Amino acid sequence: MVHAIQGQQHQLKSRELQRKLYRAAKQNRERRFHALYDRICRSDILRRAWVEVRANGGEGGIDGLTIQNIEENGVASFLEGIGEELRMGNYHPQPVRRVYIPKPDGRKRPLGIPTVRDRVIQQACRIVIEPVFEASFEESSYGFRPRRSAQQAVTEVKKNLMCNWFVLDADIEGFFDNINHATLMGLVARRICDRRVLKLIRKWLTAGVVDEGRYSKTGKGTPQGGVISPLLANIYLHTLDRYWTLECAHLGKLYRYADDFVIVCRSRDQADEARRRITVILEKLKLTLHPEKTRIVDTRDEGFNFLGFYYRKCHSKKNGKLYPYMWPNTKAMKTVRQGIKAWTESRIQQLSLLEVVDRLNEVIRGWRNYFVTGNCFRQFKLLDRYVWWRIRKFFLRKLGGRSRRAGIRFNGWYRQCRITRFLAPHYIIKIGESCR
Which residue ranges does the record assign to the Reverse transcriptase domain (predicted)? Predict the structure, then answer.
């Protein structure tokens, strides 16, 4: 009880600091902030950083120390040690551990996993400096920001397509791997003049990577997986947002989520000019558009993908007019099917049927809650049919036969399960029916 009260007090103190920094930065866009390093070392900031890192979970870094290990050894002593290291100036980050996660297209995405110690300090730094930059960020940026989400971005894109026809579907080639460190530090220094904070960020950028036991230096880029990387990415691309708002807003509306963005334009000429302007801006940031993945789309003839949705203008069945529609794209459907298949394979036969249903609910609910904002009735029905087929296959395999009697038994169980266990596919059908 005492620890819970102390945790709430730390939370309130840290949020009050954030509000003060945000108000000060909002009042004066040219102000540069100093004496922020001492706030990163505060016990309430470190405690909140630990709580947020623990909530996100994740594996350990190259030191092999996990969140569970730290809890067993004592969180208080761990945070005291971090605070002392920072105050004495003895902190040096360790290289990130390189791992690869599979992508739906068969390729692998490289991620860099810092140690838990480094993640806590990065989160503490983010808590302190994020309000300073958040006060300046443009409305066109939606990724990894407080009170902003991908759902807001996809909904706004659909609204803007009501009276516009062309879209610049842009892709930055190797964004996180090609961020220029000198340019990034110059952008950070525009609002922060505390040398110790700048030195801290520079250390994280140049900490290096360990890939299969081999260490390599990092001369550019930020590791995907670092706690502070999303904020640094937004700071870097804020130049793009700001320039577009001041100089190019007449060409179309920009919507950006991290390095993924689209520009909705009225005409083909505007879209062509938008592509030219974006190329010039990115050249100043030492970035380039992907020549194959960047294209101009006439939404009357073809569609485009953005944040998991596929957009296209189609004729309404009611009046025959063209309206923008959006539904889960092929990659999103493949991803959720892979998650469903993983929990209904033969290697997990030791689980009971109801345990499998609970696992499937976890997989499907998050997917469903994200895509329910679109025109997804058909995709929900297809997913529901796929879930039924996978569970039936799992059920019959568990019974050891495919007889007619076993099939009847499964149908009865599945019907009862929907009533008693609130099976996710049943809920999807209900949502799908409301999306007609």
Answer: 82-311
